[in-house]
Amino acid sequence: MPHLSCADKAFFKENGYLIRQDLLTQEQIDNARDAIWEGLEADRSNPATWIGAGPRVPVPSSHPAIRATVMESPVFSIAEELVGEGQLNPGGPGPNLVFPFGEQDWSGPSHGHLDGYYTPTNGVPEGTVGLFHVGTTIYVEDIKPQGGGFTLWPGVHRQAAEYFKTHSFLSIQGGTSREVFDLPEPLEVTGPAGTVCFWHGQMVHSGSRNCARNIRMALIARLSRKDLNDIRFETPDDMWQYWEGIN
Ligand SMILES: O=C(O)CCC(=O)C(=O)O
Question: Which residues line ligand 1 (CB under 6 A)?
Fold first, then answer.
């Protein structure tokens, strides 16, 4: 049974993201949160120790409770409803934590980046690009405004598709959006534990400063098509050509 309506798909096409809060069970959320706490160097019962704690990736994406949030919930099926049934490589999300900063002077990010583009330090090999189709950011903790929310710039996926029709994928070092895209107001994604944000793989996004009490506990998956190597450097006239579920 499909999880997305025509209106959901139209919203994703226009805005490049879609937020759902009804996809994970409480048990899946609790298990993922417990797994993260097992790897943290902080005292779960003492918020003072959460400030500036670590590590940022306390458990691997292969941990069963972490992988389950994508592969044993409707999250993966929904990504395939967008891209096409049977088209995506299965994959778990990686934990991505933003620890409380301990101060209140919040300001949102002024610009973001696209993922998968080389910088000297980000591990992407020079001369390549690590494209994917659907990103999913899953919160396993309640995230309030100014609480380190995943931040995106709605609609910029369409600008990116246009840009790469006439520019090399290698032309934006680190995928940085500064001076390349005309950025609208950003959206800081907030919501209760269990909030899932699906985002287009060419969506400009960023982390943000966490001035809240809670640790920003997110799990981020980047789901790519099985035929990515065949189409990696294509920039079709119709940006939805390889999105059979939505085009
Ligand atoms: O942590 C976040 O909210 C954003 C993470 C991010 O920008 C990235 O992993 O590329």
Answer: 96, 98, 115, 150, 205-207, 218, 220
- pLDDT higher than threshold 90 for residue 153: yes
* Domain 6-231, CATH: 2.60.120.620
Q: How confident is the model at residue 124 (pLDDT cuts 50, 70, 90)?
A: confident
Question: What mean pLDDT is predicted for residues 37-43?
Answer: 97
Q: What was the pLDDT predicted at 177?
A: 77
d(CA 229, CA 215): 37
Q: Indicate the top mutation candidate among 146, 150, 152 to test ligand 1's pocket, ranked by most ligand atoms within 8 A of CB.
A: 150
CB–CB of 209/216 below 8 Å?
A: no
CB atoms within 10 A of CB 157: 25
Q: Which atom of ligand 1 is nearest to the CA of 148?
A: 3
